[in-house]
Amino acid sequence: MAVLVYAESYDGHYKKAALEAVSYAKSIADKAGDTVTAVAINATESSDSLYKYGANKVLKVSSDVLKNFSPNAYAKVLADLKDGDTIVLPATNDASSFAPLLALKTNATLVTNLMSAPSSVSPFTAERKAFSGKGIETIEVTDGVKVLTVLQNAFGLKENPVAGTEETANVSISDADTKVKVVKVEHASTDKIDLKEAEIVVSAGRGLKGPENWGMIEELAGILGAATACSKPVADIGWRPHSEHVGQTGKAISPKLYIAVGISGAIQHLAGVNSSKTIVVINSDPEAPFFKSADYGIVGDAFEVVPKLNEELRKFKG
Amino acid sequence: MKILVCISSVPDTTAKINFTGDGKEFDKNGIQFVINPHDEFSLTRAVQLQETQGAKITVITVGDASVEPVMRKALAIGADDAIRVNADARDGLFVATQIAKVAKDGSYDLILTGRESIDYNGGEVPGLVAGILDYGFVNGCVGLTVNGSSVEAVREIDGGKETISAQFPVVIAGQKGLVEETELRIPNMRGIMAARTKPLNVVEAEQTSSKLKVVGYVKPPSRGNVTLIDKDNVAELVRLLHEEAKVI
Q1: Which residues between 40 and 79 in chain B have a beta carbon less than 8 angstroms from any beta carbon of chain A?
Q2: Rounded distance, CA A299 to CA A32, Å?
Q3: A136 contacts in chain B (CB < 8 Å)
């Protein structure tokens, strides 16, 4: 018996979320006295990074049918490879999409958006995100098969090197299993850092006065190796793409460092970012509610403060 | 085309969330309820399809009678009729089982939902409905067109977008972008009047078994006081982020 974990890859490379899921699976396996088996679909990267976070075995699946994502087909692969009673997935878009289908196929109890290691594995007891980050729910699964999704940047990466082995897994999968068909894939840019995975996120709002002023924000993000994000009003008026909107109806993120520039900090915005480890707020309005939810704050004009911050950070980075 | 739009009644996005004294459940006292925002994007897209392609829209909600105002609002926005499954929405599988039964019995072509509800954030129901019915499924859609019995859906992927084609019947989970914020409908007086007489049928629930138990809720730990740094001493912020917070 093993804890099965889906090691999601992008363009052949394992995502950070995959390594976090392996770390999480390892924490369950250690408590339960099990091993960890990772399933990789069409990954080309060596399995070393999966061993580093605790995968004892890596099952490599390669198939043209699975080249594009299909919730039904991916669920079928994982269900076919299941050999224990726990399946761990990262809470990415793709894995969150097939988790319910996988739970049905394996007659499992589904628990999504887990935030921390289980306090007990039998019964399985752990905390998950609820109320868009305004609450934490503790759940218990009495017994049986479980499909678990792990929130990104929450449990985090835990190194646990093991000497792992790799096997090719043969799964029978055909075009009929995909049910839906991907007809077009557009990549905006591949060099951008994924917002959900980013360790540092630099975000800006209406205080920036116009889309032409985002240069200094992108510069700040560039210096820090950060992803860029924005507030809801800014996405709604089209200054920035919807994919950058963080908040209750946009993306929820938990980076190590979140820097908010010219964002007042409406409760809906906070819901999407309040699980960030450290929050820095730069706003010209000393009454901006965001200061109450920040760790560090600078009251000042973004157009003065951000260029200075960029300069100081450049000095710091040497 | 028959569209089933699944709607959840959730606390308003501005609501402060509190839990009952024993921490066992969400405290609904003083809370305003609204259509789950992700569901509202899907509902609005359905109404657009109804206007341009002549769809019939049924909304479905699993909940007790307290969810009816939110369902009436959906009717005022343009849904033709509504079905309330009279039961507490106790977990994702329970809710999905109810929706799947109605979807199958009513032979709906297109089942539209939101990506997740902003209360329990499970994100489970759309995929479970698709799985129970063995229908195609596209999650997190930011674009949807219908042509005869084919749909073309657009979803966000890492660093880009993906266009997916599927055939009826299909489950589509929408999010912001499916329609723009400015396209959302505020019910007008005519809509509100019409909604009063549109059918809202109440049906009883199918039973399911569950091994999932909620132990309790807590609020996330609050942050300490903010450390304010003078705008002319930005170097101090860099020092604090490095030495104190240890995040750079």
Answers
A1: none
A2: 50
A3: 217-220
Beta bridge partners of A90: A150
Q: Taking CB atoms and an 8 Å limit, are B124 and A110 in contact across chains?
A: yes
Peptide bond into A123 cis (omega under 30): yes
ipTM of this predicted structure: 0.96
Which residue in this structure is represented by tokens 């909620």?
B214
- Cβ neighbourhood burial of A172 (10 Å; 0-12, 13-18, 19+): exposed
Check: pTM over 0.80? Answer yes or no: yes
A202 with A221: CB under 8 angstroms?
A: yes
Which of A:17-36 have CB within 8 Å of B? none
Which DSSP state fits A65? Answer: G
Consecutive 10-residue runs of chain B (248 residues): their mean pLDDT? Answer: 98 95 96 97 98 97 98 98 96 97 98 97 97 97 97 90 97 96 94 97 95 96 94 97 97
Of A139, A188, A295, the CB nearest to B226: A295
**Which contacts of B221-229 are long-range, i.e. CB under 8 A and separated by 24 or more positions?**
B223/A279, B223/A293, B223/A294, B223/A295, B224/A295, B226/A281, B226/A291, B226/A292, B226/A294, B226/A295, B226/A296, B226/A297, B227/A295, B227/A296, B227/A297, B228/A291, B228/A296, B228/A297, B228/A298, B228/A299, B229/A296, B229/A297, B229/A298
In sequence order, which residues have a C-beta less than 8 Å from that of residue A289 and are 6 or more positions away? A264, A265, A266
End-to-end Cα distance, chain B: 55
Chain A environment of B100 (Cβ under 8 Å): none
Q: What 3-state DSSP class applies to A5?
A: strand
Instruction: For B158-247, list the strands marked E by DSSP.
Output: 160-167, 170-174, 200-204, 212-218, 227-228
B242 contact residues in A (CB cutoff 8 A): 316
Of B120, B217, B234, the CB nearest to A312: B234
Residue A142 touches partner B, C-beta closer than 8 Å? yes
